[in-house]
Automatic annotation (TrEMBL):
Belongs to the RNase PH family. It comes from the Eukaryota. Residues 36-101 form the Exoribonuclease phosphorolytic domain. PANTHER family: EXOSOME COMPLEX COMPONENT RRP42 (PTHR11097:SF8), EXOSOME COMPLEX EXONUCLEASE RIBOSOMAL RNA PROCESSING PROTEIN (PTHR11097). The keyword rRNA processing applies. Pfam families: RNase_PH_C. The keyword Lipid biosynthesis does not apply. This is Exosome complex component RRP42. Keywords: Cytoplasm, rRNA processing. It is found in: Nucleus, Nucleolus. InterPro entries: ExoRNase_PH_dom2, ExoRNase_PH_dom2_sf, Exosome_comp_Rrp42_subfam, PNPase/RNase_PH_dom_sf.
Length: 131
C-alpha cells in the first residue's frame, strides 16, 4: 500500500535563501511505500495489569507506560518507557508481547483502509490540505 504526501518544490529567492512551495493541486503528490512502517502501541501499567491505548482516566491511574513500535511482521523497532514509576522485568515482557500482538493485528486493517482510499481515486472525499 502507498500513502501520498503533497509534492514540495524548493526554489531560491533573489537573496540566496530557499523558498518552500507546496503544490496547490491535490493530485500532485508523492507516493510513499508504507508497508513496512511500524504501528505505535502504548501500554499503560495500572496495578498488576496493563491497558492498551488507555483513556485519560486510565492514564491518570498509571504508574508507567511502555510505547512500542511494531512492523507487520511483529518486529519491534523501538520501545520507550515513560512515566515516573518503574516496570518490573516480568511486566516489561508481558507488555512487550501484548504490544507485538496488537501492533501486528492493527497492520492488516490499516493497509486495507489505505488500499480502499487509493482505489477511490478522484472520487474520495477531500479533507485537510486537499479540501
Amino acid at each position: 500500500p502507498l500513502a501520498r504526501i503533497p509534492r514540495v518544490h524548493i526554489s531560491s529567492d533573489d537573496g540566496g535563501g530557499k523558498e518552500i512551495e507546496l503544490s496547490d493541486d491535490p493530485y500532485d503528490c508523492m507516493r510513499l511505500d508504507v508497508e513496512n512502517v511500524p504501528c505505535i502501541v502504548t501500554l499503560c501499567k495500572i496495578g498488576h495489569r496493563h491497558v492498551v491505548d488507555a483513556t485519560l482516566q486510565e492514564k491518570a491511574c498509571s504508574v508507567a507506560s511502555l510505547i512500542i513500535s511494531v512492523t507487520h511482521k511483529g518486529i519491534i523497532t523501538c520501545t520507550r518507557k515513560v512515566g515516573r514509576g518503574s516496570l518490573d522485568p516480568e511486566s516489561i515482557c508481558e507488555m512487550t508481547e501484548a504490544g507485538k500482538r496488537v501492533g501486528k493485528a492493527l497492520h492488516s486493517p490499516l493497509m486495507k483502509l489505505l488500499q480502499q482510499e487509493e482505489s477511490l481515486g478522484k472520487k474520495r472525499q477531500k479533507v485537510g490540505f486537499l479540501g
